[in-house]
């Protein structure tokens, strides 16, 4: 059986503990992944510590050239990477290519790192005094990444961390760990020095080792909110800089004037694409007014019936299986919970079986209506192909729903009314807003981050926020004497004179 090992300097050697990696399409175990411990992490950190000073001293143009070559290599290997990703995650090939491409957009941003690392300069801040600042790397950073985007999120983290001069250690999800290893190999091929990008596999034992290691200065995390909160608290307690992105329950507000055909087209992709395993999925739709709700539901039912669920290599499939049997059971448990709570089960995706793949982890698309805010299934993240309709009588109620929810990752409004859209965007208590855009993930040169229990820490991912996270600012105040003995005025701090 295929073995997936760590990618660290000097080779990893055997790990006593191993985890199973499934093929979600068949339900079979396809590989085993090594699960590391604190001793293995120590070896990776030692290699990173040895390599990082020279990489930080490498001028930004040369670091950018590595990013350019890495981007070229990833594009050249796009097909093999996408098939590798789909085989372990289950998302369809087109979705996997999108996963990789959105990560590559951050690498494109990193190709311009010489420009964004320019500091600030003030000439004549005082008599003969100049002040300037520089951004310097943290040293060694780590990324703890989730199963649902095994290419995009490691690329989001590693690209900015490495381009700014840090060494970086990736701890990917043990459910689909192969793509991050391959990306690290491509970084080496692109000219990145050994020790600057390494991959360690593991479970909670490895996560805790990362959070406790004194030489790791910053940690970026994406996962569930409870774990994000844990990672943030433990990392900060150990003196680290931490950004920890959590779960979501994103709402799509549908105003009476919205183009419902476009809304339904957007919703079927945003709610059910990638089997709903996205923190920026749109699992809650909020039609304003019962008339809007009835028209929307009437259009949703046939659109959902037309969705094709298939294996990840099926080019006609809209989405594939979920990642594991345990996750399938969890999602189906939420479907039952929502029905027990009194919501109307309009379309039931449980019991879906694909001929020839009966043991695969498939769930059909599911639709609920008359979901209310007191239901646990509304309050919590389901993370599956389940869409809930929560009706709102008016705009103010619709605005209040995402604003008061415990999660605040993303939200969307569908309308032709510019005033309503502008008012909504300004007032909603959510970190990322889409106006007639169902999944408002910002482009790479802006930054990604939610509010409330969707994010812990003060700095967002990628863009200039990412540059700030992976660097520290040093400010220099300088004065050059005129050279004559005893010459020149006494030094005066600029704010004092």
How do you describe this structure in short?
The chain is α/β, with parallel strands linked by helices and 497 residues long. The mean pLDDT is 95. Helices cover 39% and strands 20% of the residues.
Protein architecture, described:
- The structure is a single chain.
- This protein has a seven-stranded mixed β-sheet with strand order 13-14-15-12-11-17-18, sandwiched between helices. It has a six-stranded mixed β-sheet with strand order 8-7-6-9-10-20, sandwiched between helices.
- Helix 2 (60-76) packs antiparallel against helix 4 (93-110) and helix 2 (60-76) packs across helix 7 (178-189).
- The chain has 497 residues and is an alpha/beta fold.
- It is globular and about 90 Å long.
- 50% of the residues are buried.
- It has helices at 38-57, 60-76, 78-89, 93-110, 113-116, 152-163, 178-189, 204-212, 225-237, 260-272, 290-305, 325-340, 376-379, 395-404, 418-427, 463-469, and strands at 2-4, 17-23, 28-35, 121-126, 129-137, 140-144, 167-171, 197-199, 218-222, 241-245, 251-254, 284-287, 344-347, 366-369, 386-389, 407-408, 410-414, 432-435, 451-452, 455-456, 471-479.
- Strand 4 and strand 5 form a beta hairpin.
- The longest helix has 20 residues, at 38-57.
- Helix content is 39%, strand content 20%.
């Amino acid at each position: 059986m295929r073995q997936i090992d760590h990618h660290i300097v000097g080779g990893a050697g055997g790990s006593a503990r191993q985890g199973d990696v499934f093929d979600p399409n068949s339900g079979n175990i396809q590989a085993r992944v090594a699960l590391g411990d604190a001793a293995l992490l120590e070896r990776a950190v030692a290699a990173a510590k040895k390599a990082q000073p020279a990489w930080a001293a490498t001028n930004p143009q040369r670091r950018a050239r590595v990013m350019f070559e890495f981007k070229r290599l990833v594009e050249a290997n796009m097909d093999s990477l996408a098939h590798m990703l789909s085989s372990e995650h289950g998302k369809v090939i087109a979705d996997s290519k999108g996963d990789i491409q959105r990560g590559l957009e951050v690498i494109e941003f990193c190709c311009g790192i010489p420009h964004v690392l320019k500091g600030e300069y003030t000439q004549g801040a005082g008599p003969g005094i100049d002040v300037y600042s520089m951004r310097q790397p943290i040293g060694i950073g780590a990324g703890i990444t989730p199963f649902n985007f095994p290419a995009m999120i490691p690329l989001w983290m590693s690209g900015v961390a490495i381009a700014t001069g840090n060494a970086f250690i990736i701890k990917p999800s043990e459910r689909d760990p192969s793509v991050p290893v391959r990306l690290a190999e491509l970084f080496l091929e692109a000219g990145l020095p050994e020790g600057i990008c390494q991959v360690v596999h593991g479970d909670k034992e490895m996560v805790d080792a990362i959070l406790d290691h004194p030489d790791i200065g910053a940690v970026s995390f994406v996962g569930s909110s409870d774990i994000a909160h844990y990672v943030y608290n433990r990392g900060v307690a150990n003196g680290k800089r931490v950004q920890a992105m959590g779960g979501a329950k994103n709402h799509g507000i549908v105003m009476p004037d919205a183009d419902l055909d476009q809304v339904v087209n957007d919703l079927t992709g945003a709610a059910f694409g990638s089997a709903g395993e996205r923190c920026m999925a749109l699992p809650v739709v909020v039609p304003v007014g019962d008339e809007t709700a009835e028209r929307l539901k009437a259009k949703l039912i046939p659109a959902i019936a037309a969705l094709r669920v298939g294996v990840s290599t099926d080019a006609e499939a809209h989405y594939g299986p979920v990642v594991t049997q345990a996750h399938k059971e969890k999602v189906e448990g939420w479907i039952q919970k929502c029905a027990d709570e009194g919501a109307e089960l309009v379309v039931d995706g449980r019991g879906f079986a694909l001929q020839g793949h009966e043991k695969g982890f498939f769930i059909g698309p599911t639709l609920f209506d008359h979901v209310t805010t007191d239901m646990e299934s509304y309050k919590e993240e389901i993370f599956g192909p389940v869409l809930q309709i929560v009706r709102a009588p008016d705009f103010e109620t619709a605005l209040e729903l995402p604003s008061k929810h415990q999660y605040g990752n993303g939200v969307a409004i569908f309308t032709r009314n510019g005033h309503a859209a502008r008012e909504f965007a300004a007032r909603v208590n959510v970190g990322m807003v889409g106006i007639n855009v169902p999944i408002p993930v910002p482009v790479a040169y802006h930054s990604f981050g939610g509010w409330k229990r969707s994010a812990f820490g003060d700095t967002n991912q990628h863009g200039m926020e990412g540059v700030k996270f992976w660097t520290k600012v040093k400010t220099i105040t300088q004065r050059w004497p005129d050279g004559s003995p005893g010459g020149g005025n006494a030094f005066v701090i600029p704010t004092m004179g």
